[in-house]
Amino acid sequence: MRSRRPTDPRVAALRWLAGRDLSAAEVRLRLLRRGVEPDAAAAVVADLEAEGLLDDRRVCRAAVEQAVRWGRYGPGALRRYLLARGIDRELADETLATVGESDWRAVAEGMRRRYDMEDPRERARCARQLQRQGFPAALVAALVTDPGPGPARPQDSDGEPEKG
Known about the structure:
The chain is mainly α. The protein has three domains: 9-54, Arc Repressor Mutant, subunit A; 56-99; 101-145, no CATH class. It has helices spanning 9-19, 24-33, 38-50, 56-70, 75-84, 89-96, 101-112, 120-132, 137-145. The chain is elongated.
């Protein structure tokens, strides 16, 4: 029985890229894990970059746009994610700088909605989460001191929040 695994490193890399955008470092690492010689892996990556099939700038920009749209990461956590994917530190910082302050605020507000801001312990948990996500301290303080809308609470038939 024949293995479905391609023996040509370029073919393997193209299959991976057909599934999703990968950084040059991710492709290089996958090739090395398959036993491809380092020089051969570097050559495949260089060829794919020259052809525009492998582009760290595109990968970085797409990851940042998606994270902001979904509201999953703060600036610090997103930067760590990009660096873990092998994106150059300068490129990551440059791309993160394109996100507006109002966009980061919207992401943080979305994260805040998961907490009951009337409960001091929940407010503290929210502040710690926002800090771990790398939001600026001033924004965290502003969001935690302003109760704003919290999570939706079940209401009884009179429209009043249930006591529980």
